[in-house]
């Protein structure tokens, strides 16, 4: 019995979301790593966060959320590939 799955977002939006999510993960992992190592450029000023380890954990948590977006949008792109162009869903 085939499952009738309809896409939630368009193929362009799914592709754009995937690309931006990958970039977001890279940036957030880098920032989390820098805050976790207490890099002076990010933690040396009086206006910077008092607990850089907590900021690093939040960056990693946000990267996980972006990972969920990659999974969702990747599945949406797979659903779009299943149907030929112009088919009414």
List its salient traits:
mainly alpha; rod-shaped
What fraction of residues sit in β-strands? under 5%
Shape: rod-shaped
Number of separate strands: 0
Our measurement of the CA-to-CA distance between the termini, rounded to an integer number of angstroms, reads 18 Å
The largest sheet, given as strand count, sense and whether it forms a barrel, is: none
Specify the helix fraction band: 55-70%
Tell me the number of helical segments per DSSP (H or I, 4 or more residues long): 3
The average pLDDT value, as a whole number, equals 87
- Derived from helix and strand composition plus strand pairing, the structural class reads mainly alpha
- Low-pLDDT segments: none
Radius of gyration: 19 Å
**Helices and strands, in N-to-C order?**
HHH
Structure, described:
The protein has about 90 residues and is an all-alpha fold. It has a domain at about 20-80. The protein is about 70% helix and about 0% strand. The protein contains three helices and no strands. The chain has helices at about 10-35, 40-45, 50-80. The longest helix has about 30 residues, at about 50-80. The chain is rod-shaped, with a radius of gyration of 19 Å.
């Amino acid at each position: 019995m085939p499952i009738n799955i309809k896409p939630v977002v368009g193929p362009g939006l799914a592709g754009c979301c995937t690309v931006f999510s990958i970039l977001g993960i890279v940036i957030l992992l880098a920032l989390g790593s820098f805050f976790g190592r207490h890099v002076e450029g990010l933690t040396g000023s009086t206006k910077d966060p008092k607990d850089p380890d907590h900021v690093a954990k939040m960056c990693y948590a946000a990267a996980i959320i972006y990972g969920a977006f990659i999974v969702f949008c990747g599945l949406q792109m797979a659903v779009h590939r299943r149907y030929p162009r112009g088919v009414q869903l």
